[in-house]
User: Which sequence fits this backbone?
């Protein structure tokens, strides 16, 4: 019997160091907390704005969710339609005179050409697909310091191109 | 006693958390990629169409029209047109800043005077930046908790209905000129 016990002890001494279990309970606890936090801040918003010092949106108390429509960005650098640059600003942050129409200084020619092209595209899709309709909605993401003079030019041009329902993107106040 | 001990050993087991950890580890990077710390909203600002405006004006000659002009030189100018009469209200600048609280109080009193009007025309000057325009629109859109309760008359039932909104329909009146 004593011999057998000694054999058992030998076996356990040899075996114990190789069989151990990692305590993952606390790690799972931590991950569950992280998961809940991430799920809370999960967003399915159609508007994604990468952080940039060229575009800081104004803060508002509005709670209306953004819609997935054509995006016009007015940053400190220039005007973009769906990430395509249509007009570039000079060092003072003003639009070049060559981009404006000679007879109508509120009319940005390059912006009109691009918006008109987008409108034609949407209308041709709407003709084939009954579920889609051209509703003239445009989401304007403009920097908070952009003066109204420039915004007015953008809105005026988009109105002439058929986009008369302008929505201004803002940062939700917490 | 031996039997009891044997049962006690059987009752203690360890939960295998490894598969759960596997799932969490694969979900966390996906959520980390789609996480947003800035929530985006929109402010509706339809541009008035010339034809539509003309139709509205001819249809509602007795209607009340409220115009708000803002400039860094004179502050706010409110023009209320009702039944052919025009009333002008001015709110001066508070130093370098717009008197937003003064504007909010004035808008609350105007809403009490004209409870069924929800539309307002905004005429900002060229030098006013976007964040000031958005701040003004916020002030004229909804009442705060400290403001008096606002009511409007429901056109179908004729009853008074409580509302949080002051002038939520803001249109830029001077986009097409003027």
Assistant:
């Amino acid at each position: 019997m004593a011999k057998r016990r000694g054999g058992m002890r030998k076996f356990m001494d040899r075996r114990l160091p190789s069989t151990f279990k990692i305590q993952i309970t606390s790690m799972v606890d931590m991950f569950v907390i992280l998961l809940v936090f991430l799920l809370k801040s999960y967003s399915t918003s159609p508007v994604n704005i990468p952080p940039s010092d060229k575009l800081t949106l104004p803060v508002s108390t509005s709670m209306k969710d953004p819609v997935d429509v054509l995006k016009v960005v007015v940053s400190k650098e220039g005007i973009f339609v769906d990430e395509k640059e249509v007009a570039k600003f000079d060092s003072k942050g003003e639009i070049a005179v060559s981009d404006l129409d000679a007879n109508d200084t509120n009319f940005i020619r390059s912006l009109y050409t691009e918006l008109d092209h987008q409108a034609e595209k949407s209308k041709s899709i709407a003709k084939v697909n009954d579920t889609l309709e051209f509703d003239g909605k445009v989401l304007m993401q403009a920097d908070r310091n952009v003066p109204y003079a420039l915004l007015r030019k953008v809105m005026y041009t988009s109105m002439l191109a058929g986009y008369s329902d302008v929505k201004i993107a803002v940062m939700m106040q917490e | 006693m031996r039997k009891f001990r044997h049962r006690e050993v059987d009752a203690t087991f360890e939960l295998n958390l490894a598969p759960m950890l596997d799932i969490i580890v694969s979900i966390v990077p996906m959520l980390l990629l789609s996480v947003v710390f800035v929530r985006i909203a929109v402010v509706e600002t339809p541009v008035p169409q010339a034809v539509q405006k003309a139709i509205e004006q001819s249809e509602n000659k007795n209607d009340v029209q409220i115009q708000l002009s803002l400039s860094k030189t004179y502050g706010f100018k409110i023009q209320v047109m009702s039944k052919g009469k025009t009333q002008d209200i001015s709110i001066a600048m508070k130093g370098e800043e717009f008197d937003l609280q003064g504007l909010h109080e004035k808008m609350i009193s105007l809403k009490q005077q004209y409870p069924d009007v929800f539309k307002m025309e905004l005429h900002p000057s060229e030098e006013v930046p976007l964040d000031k325009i958005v701040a003004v629109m916020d002030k004229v859109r909804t009442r705060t908790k400290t403001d008096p309760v606002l009511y409007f008359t429901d056109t179908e039932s004729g009853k008074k209905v409580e509302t949080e909104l002051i002038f939520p329909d803001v249109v830029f009146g001077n986009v097409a000129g003027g």
In short: The longest strand of chain A covers residues 165-172.
